[in-house]
Design goal:
alpha+beta, Alpha-Beta Plaits, four-stranded antiparallel β-sheet, 4 strands, UPF0045 protein
């Protein structure tokens, strides 16, 4: 099975510059060892089980809240996709690029 979870974490009440806190969430994801990709809006993580991926998301949210206890409130947006197979983090993007090249 392959579980893809795209999520964003936004600390609330910490001012406009949230990059430092968001970086802590991304650090947790990267240190997890799971395939991942970060863009301007979301970080996407791929794993074999829901539990595996959601544990990383949970740890990322906790890291944002824990940084010097500066974020007493954290907003999370999450989108998930589960299906058989694996390696979809790169395969889905490659399929789009292939279709673009054909036109």
């Amino acid at each position: 099975m392959s579980v893809l979870v795209a999520f964003s974490v936004t600390p609330i009440g910490t001012g406009e510059d949230v990059g430092e806190l968001v970086a802590e969430a991304v650090r947790v994801v990267r240190e997890s060892g799971l395939p991942n990709r970060t863009d301007a809006m979301f970080t996407t993580v791929e794993g074999e089980t829901w539990e595996e991926v959601l544990a990383v998301v949970t740890a990322a949210v906790a890291a944002v809240a824990a940084v010097e206890a500066r974020a007493s409130r954290v907003s999370v947006v999450l989108k998930a996709d589960s299906r058989s197979g694996g390696g979809r983090l790169d395969a889905k993007v490659a399929a789009i690029e292939r279709h673009l090249a054909e036109s």
